[in-house]
Amino acid sequence: RSLSTAARSSLKIGLIPADGIGKEVIPAARTAIEALGSDIPKPEFIELLAGWETFTRYGVALPEETVKILRSDCDCALFGSVSSPSRKVIGYSSPIVALRKELDLYANIRPVVSVAPEAGQTPAVDLVVVRENTECLYVKQEEQIITENGKEARATRLITERASRRIGKMAFDLALERQRKHLTIIHKSNVLSVTDGLFRETVRKVHTFPDAEGKYDSVSVMEQLVDSAVYRLFREPEVFDVMVAPNLYGDILSDAAAALVGSLGLVPSVNAGDDFVMGEPVHGSAPDIAGKGIANPIASIRSAALMLRRLGYTKGADRLDTAVDQVIREGTTLTPDLNGKSSTTEVLDAVLKKL
Ligand code: GGG
């Protein structure tokens, strides 16, 4: 399937709420998309199963049917959140990690932007974490053996030149589109000189590849060890524009960056490949508040906007983002994660009014 907007009469969107608050925020995003009217092709939604609950009911976390329908019938998708257990469960494997691999969604693009900076919080945060989405420790090759000294557990950390090059290219392309055109490569190659060394070297080379033909000359490149990047993120977030990182560092960094803008409930992402795009709020399934009707729908609505933008529906995406920004700035209808008292539905209604 192509990402081009060419002559679509309808937009087929796979909806995978999965677990916990995913079941509350994905329907809210659906309603927001429906409110866009003729700014996008007529949306058609296809509800699909995945997640821990799906596993407990049907014995499989990512049904083959879900992947098949996404591949053959959908133009794009929205994924909610998943509650994988922290212990090994035989037969279970994280469906979101599997889905990213199945659909080759090799980049997780996570913009973190402060809309209404608190007093004294200057300058505002405006950065994008570009997380490699298919390898690193997430290849999930783990084993445990018993030695004479007790248990020993190992995990394979895979970094390839191919994956590092394509995520690097994605990050350079994103940097080119931004005003500051500044890219920071995140790694830990002073310790992991073979794996992170390959990531760092390969991303660095992207702008000097012969096929780049000077395209990225206007992008300034910096690099930063992951530990000091976290420190700088909290001390001087304004130094970062686009940050590109291997899978695990990108996962952690984007949650950390979310703390700077008020709540994880505000931060969207898209899982992007060359042929498909899937929006996904950065937050997890939040079992502590699931079912209470107070989950923040903004990360999911913004994820829908990112997904539409990537498909070329800029007007619809802009309308969603502007409506959300207005609601946040007004500050009267906010969910408890932002110290408000409003429900998911009340925040959604406030966004719909702005639309
Ligand atoms: N929407 C992001 C999300 O669900 N985060 C939690 C997560 O990725 N967990 C991994 C898993 O449960 O398999």
How would you characterize the overall build of this protein?
The chain is an alpha/beta fold. It folds into 2 domains: 1-107 and 268-355, 3-Layer(aba) Sandwich (Isopropylmalate Dehydrogenase), CATH 3.40.718; 122-260, Isopropylmalate Dehydrogenase (3-Layer(aba) Sandwich). The chain is built from 11 helices and 12 strands. It has helices at residues 22-34, 52-58, 64-73, 95-102, 161-177, 195-205, 226-235, 247-260, 298-310, 314-330, 344-354, and strands at residues 10-18, 42-47, 76-81, 107-113, 126-132, 142-147, 150-155, 182-187, 220-225, 242-245, 270-272, 277-279. The strands form 2 sheets. A 10-stranded mixed beta sheet has the order 2-1-3-12-11-4-5-10-8-9, sandwiched between helices. A two-stranded antiparallel ribbon has the order 6-7. α1 (22-34) packs parallel to α11. The radius of gyration is 20 Å and the shape is globular. The protein starts with 9 loop residues before the first strand and ends with a helix. The mean pLDDT is 94. Bound molecules: glycylglycylglycine.
Brief summary:
Helix content is 37%, strand content 19%. The chain contains 11 helices and 12 strands. Glycylglycylglycine is lined by residues 81-82, 84, 94, 96-97, 280-281, 283-285.
Keywords:
355 residues; alpha/beta; Isopropylmalate Dehydrogenase; 2 domains; ten-stranded mixed sheet; two-stranded antiparallel sheet; 11 helices; globular; binds glycylglycylglycine
